[in-house]
Design goal:
single chain, 334 residues, alpha/beta, Rossmann fold, 7-stranded parallel sheet, 3-stranded mixed sheet, 13 helices, 12 strands, 16% strand, disordered N terminus, NAD(P)-bd_dom_sf, aldehyde dehydrogenase (NAD+) activity, Epimerase_deHydtase, NAD(P)-dependent_oxidoreduct, Epimerase
Amino acid sequence: MVNNVVEETDMKRAVVLGAAGGMGRALAKELLARGVETVAFGRSRGKLESLAEEIGHRSSLTIKAGDALRPDEVAEAAAGADVLFHSMGMPYPEWGEKLLPLAASVMRGARMAGAKTVVIDNIYPYGRRTGPEPATESHPKRPHTRKGRLKLDMERVVMDAHREGAPALIVRLPDFYGPDAPNSMLDMTLAAIAKRKPAMFVGRLDVPREYVYVPDAAKAVVELAFREDAYGESWHVPGAGVITGADIVRIARDEAGASKPVRTIGRKTFALLGLFNPFMREVREMLYLTEEPFVLSGAKYERRIGPLPATPFEQGIRETVRAHMAKSADAVGR
């Protein structure tokens, strides 16, 4: 890391909301690897128990099922915690009803518990990219989609709470991928290729896009959480550059030894599927990101924190495919 003198916040105990999801799981693993006692919080006790069985650290990991829309349950989970990581997602069709109440509940619960909050977010509030250079944290926020406007409103909820005495920071990530990241669009493509089945890829195969490897993102996020001067700001954690869908498919198929076709799906397909499926209908408005890629700048992070973890795509994609192949082999074995 850089040699800047910074004040580090004390973090002996943390709580991860949405710990059974892809980002939450990676955060829990990273925290435990750093010796931080961790509470894994989520809606499903069964998923949390599976997480605990997988990652071990029984003496340092506690699981707690609950409803994050109830600030008292958030506060109970965060009791004694120094930092609360909010990585809890929800299906697109529920955003209009629950996204802002969830943010408000998390911030209220964190304040009740006396914990700082790290919010994992995406790039939706920015809207379309306005120039050729990677976007810094000062990039204008001009969301032109419903979900982008909701995410911008969520940012206001978080930062208003920060100004009222509940320390918080926001980390923005591009699309992510990696082992145990089932809630990413790229995961369905890599999982199908790993199983040597026909696969679907969202968007054009010739458009270079940015993806961040989930374990890298978790390392960078946890590093930010330790930095006292990081709170009250938003931060970008980009991936290891950009890559086309064609190259992703090539690497994945080479690792899997697969030759089944990969079909692209775009606006027409989503419009048709959206007639019957609310989730597909909600995805359609975000397809501009597959056509006009938005690339993040990590300059602020590197200037104030240090080098960003950046697993090369060749390595990260192969590791993800191998993880899916191992899961398939285990399922056959059972």
